[in-house]
Amino acid sequence: MTTSMTSIDSLLHETRRFPPSPEFVANAVATPALAAAAAKDRLGFWAEQSRELLDWHTPFTQTLDWSDAPFARWFADGRLNVAYNCLDRHVLAGNGDRIAIHWEGEPGDSRSLSYAELTAEVKKAANALAALGVTKGDRIAVYLPVIPEAVIAMLAIARLGAIHSVVFGGFSADSLRARIDDAQAKLVITADGGWRKGKVFPLKDTVDAAVEGTSVEHVLVVRRGGNDIGWTQGRDLWWHDTVGTADPEHEAEAFDAENPLFILYTSGTTGKPKGILHSSGGYLTQVAYTHKNVFDLHPESDVFWCTADIGWITGHSYVVYGPLANGATQLLYEGTPDTPHPGRWWELIEKYRVSILYAAPTAIRSLMKLGREIPDRFDLSSIRVLGSVGEPINPEAWIWYHDVVGAGTAPIVDTWWQTETGAIMISPLPGITSLKPGSAQAAVPGIEIAVVDDDGAPVPKGSGGLLVITEPWPSMARGIWGDDERFVETYWSKFAEQGYYFAGDGARIDEDGDVWLLGRVDDVMNVSGHRLSTAEIESALVSHPMVAESAVVGAYDETTGQAVVAFVILRAEHAEQHTPDEASTALRGHVASAIGAIARPREIFIVAELPKTRSGKIMRRLLRDVAEGRPIGDTTTLADPAVMRLIEQMSKAK
Ligand code: WT7
Questions:
Q1: Fewer Cβ in 10 A, N or C end of the chain?
Q2: Quick check: CB of 389 below 6 Å from ligand 1?
Q3: Are 583 and 568 in contact (CB under 8 A)?
Q4: Which ligand 1 atom is the nearest neighbour of the CA of 388?
């Protein structure tokens, strides 16, 4: 937390304020009445939001059942179909011709699907999946690029009351296999390959390597990359042969509000990813509510673009469920921001007249580095709201985003939330809040948070502490798949007495009551807005025969926020055979193939010792000092203080 602490210190000197313009206020979706209603009767407020935003097949009469805390049940006696809420009802309301998805492939091919067309595709997919034996409660893994079929697959699974587990296409075969095994998935939906950085990356080959000997009965394959793939007769099926020929009529059945909707794996402090479980009615209520109010959505006229991959929670909540529940028109883009040219994002905003852009600080920073001449070449005048997510946005990037992308007028909503929270929890409201660059500002109406000390007591204004959520919320995780105990232990044990959810983030509340996020307080890194665990990467490193011991830290990085830096002790025989450079190159590649390219360390220092306390605990704080090129901090608790001098010398020699 050290670097983020110091950067926050400087952030606190940030005094610029950006109140909403009178024109924005005049048309704003969220008004102060929202907070007033939530303050008056919080549960009543959520019940009202849910009734207003969703269509319930069977209306609920109970709002929250917290009797089995921390396992919440929201709207539990109500029944609904999530896909129906995202599709059919918009068609029935006369909006079938409205575009749901403008999709653009990286090579420049494109496809637009109206709500009527998307509904028909999802119905076909639901029929095809049902014919393959998929029913309520089954787990289906989705390993796809950002193509319309990814959205169609997720909604078809939801329509059947089954559970999707989307695995980001950048994860390795081992990571995919671990997720398939943990959830006992019976089907995988994938593509031959997808486009990324001007090339086709294979997906089906990775699936082949992952599914052997698992619970998977069938692999459904979308043709996208056109690359050669292996084929297992009887197991593998083409999407176009099955879904393509299925009946476009399918009646949505209602399921309980608490029917599980999806599992999404995220890294924790151990080597084993956690399968975060979300359910239907509460989740859909809060994603629709936040999507509408935080982004000031006017569904008849806005074009919304969330740049996240569907493999992350942001893609689940603000590509699939929030926008579609609200009947929004959105852009979906397959590729990277700089392919085939560095102005690609701006070109897409101009082409589709994107009005709301939701992106990560890491992308904003890397586009900022290329200079404003690039965005200045495009017409970005359609932009009226900007969003940020995944990590704190530094004021420099904030101001650039505001001035260059938002023409100095578009409000920026810096949204704090997590895979576990399901939906946005802390954010400005664009027609109400006077914005402060770098602060996520306040809990959205209906959400209760606090910043507390180790004993759970609120810290005074101006000081740092731990961020907690003090009351249950509709889109909260319902557990960790197959591991209730870990759910309780990880999130609910630190403040068991108070019943608070502990988010794992440090935060500070300023004099005005605004929240400043200070980064993770546990051994979890945030690289490009994605969560990685030090333990998971350490265990990948020690699985290599060359490695005797390893320690991983997240070090400050100008573009990605944090970067993975590893310290490795080689086994004696290897230390003689390989130069540190050779070893480091081999090990960086090894981590990428064991977990996925996002986990590849930026640097690996080959060292002779690791700094440990007398009880044997690795002192990551000191390693972070080395990784960030700072003078080394207090070493008095080290078992052998000389170790750090040695590491420092070795790192300087590098
Ligand atoms: C962690 C959650 C929520 C979708 C993307 C990441 C960090 C997230 C912000 C923000 C400061 C943020 C936190 C959080 N984080 N948004 N606006 N300002 N930090 O989801 O992988 O579940 O990671 O991302 O540290 O705990 P995730």
A1: C
A2: yes
A3: yes
A4: 17
Q: Residues 297-318: what's their mean pLDDT? A: 98
Are the CB atoms for 152 and 125 separated by under 8 Å?
yes
The number of the ligand 1 atom at minimal distance from the alpha carbon of 524 is 25
CA 12 to chain centre: 27
May I ask the CATH architecture of the domain 22-505? 3-Layer(aba) Sandwich (3.40)
The residues, any chain, with a CB within 8 Å of residue 318's CB and separated by 6 or more, are: 287, 291, 306, 308, 358
Candidates 531, 505, 345; CA nearest to 440 is 505
Whether 22-505 and 524-653 share one fold: the answer is no
Whole-number average pLDDT of the chain? 94
> Percent of the chain having pLDDT more than 70?
98
Domain assignments of the chain as residue spans, ordered by start: 22-505, 524-653
Give distance in angstroms: CA of 277 to centre of ligand 1: 17
How many angstroms is it from 86 CA to the middle of ligand 1? 26
CA-only gyration radius of the chain, Å = 24
Q: Which residues contact 80 (CB under 8 A, 6 or more apart)?
A: 54, 55, 56, 57, 58, 254, 255, 257, 280, 281, 284
First and final C-alpha spacing in the chain: 26
* 518 φ/ψ angles, rounded to the nearest 5 degrees: -110, 5
Distance 526 CA to ligand 1 centre (A): 8
Q: Please tell me if the CB atom of residue 313 comes closer than 6 angstroms to any atom of ligand 1.
A: yes
The model's pTM:
0.93
How many A from CA of 390 to the centre of ligand 1? 4
Please indicate whether residue 517, judged by its CB atom, sits closer than 6 Å to ligand 1: yes
Residues in contact with 135: Cβ distance below 8 Å, sequence separation at least 6, in sequence order: 160, 161, 162
Using the Cα atoms of residue 255, residue 257, residue 261 and residue 263 in order, give the sign of their dihedral.
Answer: negative
- Band of pLDDT at residue 269, cut at 50, 70 and 90: confident
Residue 91 has a pLDDT of 98
> Please, what is the angle between helix 534-542 and helix 580-594, to 10°?
120
Strands 236-238 and 218-222 turn out to be parallel
Torsion angle defined by CA atoms of residues 287, 288, 290 and 295, in that order, rounded to the nearest 10 degrees: 120
Q: Is the CB of residue 475 below 6 angstroms from any atom belonging to ligand 1? A: no
Q: What is the mean pLDDT of residues 45-64?
A: 98
pLDDT at position 646 is 80
441 lines ligand 1 (CB under 6 A): no
